[in-house]
Amino acid sequence: MIPFTSTTFRFPDLVAPSAWVEHVPFMFWLVDALRPRRFVELGTHTGVSYCAACQAIELLHLSCSSYAIDTWKGDEHAGFYGEEIYSALAAYHAQKYAAFSSLVRSTFDEAVSHFEDESIDLLHIDGLHSYEAVRHDFETWRPKLTQNAIVLFHDTNVRERDFGVFRFWNEVSAGRPHFEFLHGHGLGVLALGDSYPEAVKALLTASKQESATEAIRTAFAHLGQAVAQGENAARSATEAETNRKEWRRQVDQRDNEIVALKTEHDKVRAVAQALELANANLAAKNNEIAALEQRVARALELADTNLAARDNSIAMLERQVQDRDHQMIALKREMELVRISRVWRYRSLLRRLASFPGRMAFYLGRPIVPRALYHLESVTSGKQATEWTVTGDDPQLELLWPGSLTLAPGYYRLTLRGPADAEAFADTRLYVDSGRGYNEVERIDLRFHSNGGGLAETIFPLYAEVTKLRFDPSDRSRQIVIDHARLRKVGRLEYYARLIARLALRHVKSPSALGRSAKRAANILRDGGLSGFAATLRSAEARGALGSITYEGWIALNDTPTEDDIANLRRRLAELKARPLISVLMPVYNTPDGLLREAIESVRAQIYQNWELCIADDCSTKPHMRLILNDYAKRDPRIKIVFREENGHISQASNSALELVTGEWVAMLDHDDELRPHALAEVALELDRHPDSELIYSDEDKIDSQGRRYDPNFKPDFSRELFRSQNYLNHLTVHRAENIRAVGGWRPGFEGSQDYDLNLRIFERIDPRKIRHIPKVLYHWRAVEGSTALDGSQKSYAYTAGLRALEEHVERMRLPARVEEAPGTTCYRLRFSVPDPQPLVSLVIPTRDKVDLLRNCLNSIREKTTYGSYEIIVVDNGSVEQETLAYFSELKKAKNMRVLHYDKPFNYSAINNFAVLNAKGSIIGLINNDIEVISPDWLTEMVSWAVQPDIGCVGAKLYYADDTIQHGGVIVGVGGVAGHSHKNFPRHHAGYFARLKVLQNLSAVTAACLLIRKNVFEEVGGLNEVDLTVAFNDVDLCLKAQEAGYSNVWTPYAELYHLESVSRGAEDAPEKVERFKNEIMFMQRQWKKVIDRDPFYSPNLTKGRDDFSLG
């Protein structure tokens, strides 16, 4: 009989419906008896067998690395299943066994190359169960087994369908030491050698004795049945608890339904009363309809008579057309005879000669006549200029030229004389008609340049023959003046010469800058030749189809340091008041040779020299690792190495590297990424400017296997709400070493999001104002196979770990919120609870007539909003239509509804301030009358943020009626003052790095739908009635709240439609245009600092558009 230990009688931590449950006691026994150093399982499914082995390994404190290999998609034998199986196992595994075990999501054949020969002591084969598959798996993995390895085969006692494990078991066990269990679908134990621990030898010897075999089988069958019964009991208890919760939920639901029915009963009574009134109205309408039907019948009789006469006319015309066709055929024959005559050929030559001056004049430059198409009204001007007033949001002009010539493909120069300010032609677009009509595909975004005297010019390419041009000026200007417009075809040489001249004027401001630009040009010519130089010019100046520069062009213009730049950087470093030691911390494990060297060399190439590189090797199995690391340690004394004796994964390896740190600051570097040469220099300079900093982070991009840079992440300054939605700090992040040590370093169990967990814990103990952002790309994130840089979904365990890290952060901070997945992203959502009782919200809605618009707005609020505690204050500003006044009378009778009258000229700020004075709620909601609710919990979501003591204004996600984005928050500085983020993006677009899908802090949000606590509104002085009567008053309110120390929040989880100021009317009167100019001037004076640099928008992005494209 074999010896039993206490391990055998343990109950497994993980149980699930599986035949393998009955073999768990034997797995406990085998791990204890064999004491393997490496265990591999092929086919893991729910993880019952694998986690049993891991439980024993952990319990016995064995030095054993374990690997579960599976695709976690299923097969025809195990059945196919969804992602939830893997997700549940990964979450359980990461918490329990991540220190020594790995889940490898791969096919068996793909994974085998990652294991050395003769390295596996215990192999469990439980994949596809056909004879061919089992044989293939055994023969493929046979070289990886040690001489005295043990191999387990499951389902050796199954003889149904096409299961063939029993056939292969009979073959492979013949002549080899083995043992077979018959319960639990059968389990074969195969020994490949002859040198085993005594307990294992006893098991193998027992197979030769029938009585001993039966005794062992019976013992383990009883133990397995006990485990299975325990699993059944636990499952029954879980189901009972689930049923209890479901019954409780149904009871609560019934209670809610009773309350809802009582409310509905009241509504029905009100509807019945309204129905009586409607019936009376309907009778009157029916009488009107009857009279109308009589008039229509008479009109139809008359139309029938006219139609008969028209049919006769058409028949006569058709006969005339046939006669004309016969005449045309005869004329064509006569013309053909004329063409072949000598006289015709002479006349044809003379006609072409006569048209030559016209063609030459066209290429020398022809005058262009703009003709208004839409949203433009001609204005009589005393000057010899063409002037229009913009009457809508899409002004259009057609550009006409003399003659009937088409425009051939090539480059063209368009010159316009207008106002001296070049901004008059900003954001203009050209639509071309090449035979398919005007369309977005053939749109060209024009970039005009002005000489300061009113003459503006632009050069653009045409890629096909064009018959018509449409010029769409910016809708930001209310007046359009164009004089002396001309169009001229230019050659390629002139085109590129003009690009070079403009780039020089834009970027060269001193002799030294001229030298830097010349050196950049020389580098581009050397590396890419003339074609590369031309491509860089086009991408840098001409802009692409979306009107944004390519990243390659942006790098060439903004992020390619010259020797002068580096010399200047060294000079600034020499003037530092302090030179802190920066410790670069880098855990490594089996890094490819070349990538490891590049990572280390990127540190050694730093312009700032006061650094140390602290490397922890996490028990790598590749021999080149120790050789390379020791070599670098000998070559540079600033490089420190520790070789761990066991693999602990990235968190424990990082902590080992932290023990080497002697610097005041710690910068994190992944083992296959790269630092920019000036990375640590920029950190040192930032510390010199802000010595009280606690955490520093920079922008980053990605780098592929060929070294090409792409996908830059230009980040905002610190945004708490964005940080709680995603770890956007990421790379490069630099911490005070004392902060890392104070929170205990990196925590095992959070692998994949270990840095996010660390950042959250450090954030909890520092002043957020001391988190500094360097808006420069200082880090290249390597995109290699299996990296989240290549595909964020490749490490789903990282997302799960991040979710747990955020949940624990919320618990530690005692926030009244729960953490959820952000739908459609790999980000997170914090859902705050609303206080009980709910605070009263006063929804203020200014209006003037447009009763259908107002009715739709109010109905959507009252019918869809699930938040209960609110009042609606409609502020009438001079409505005169009888239907509107009658509707006001109805509203005054409604519950929680008031109508106030503001009988002064329109002043948006004053109207809302007046309403706030009369509001009863502790929270104010500024709402436009053209808003329509989409998400029923919109007000609950916004209130949950508005009640937070450090929050000022809360904004919502607004859509146009065509389901494109109208408001994704406000970016201050875009368009000169402020603009809506991601305007016109599709509804479900994630936006720039998921910014349309996650909560975030912004400098401002629109008052079309804005919530703010009443005391905060009053504290900052409300809306500016004097300087901002119509425009930008909401931006001003938000900026005042931000200046007072409050944070503004935009949430994508409050969704509404916005038709955008339909009832206010056009802004085209001279006095309105003048008022708008004054409001712009006020904002630019009052908020110059924020307009120049919005903290929540990168200075590397454009201010000319609202699409987060490169600047």
CATH architecture descriptor name of the largest domain: Alpha-Beta Complex
Termini separation (Å)?
79 Å
Low-confidence segments, given as residue ranges, are 337-363, 542-547, 789-795, 1061-1066
Task: Specify the structural class.
Answer: alpha/beta
Q: What is the count of structural domains?
A: 5
CATH topology of the largest domain: Spore Coat Polysaccharide Biosynthesis Protein SpsA, Chain A
Proportion of residues in helical segments: 40-55%
Instruction: Give the C-level CATH assignment of the largest domain.
Output: Alpha Beta
Shape: globular
Q: Determine the mean pLDDT.
A: 84
Output the radius of gyration. Answer: 38 Å
DSSP strand tally = 43
**Helical run tally:** 29
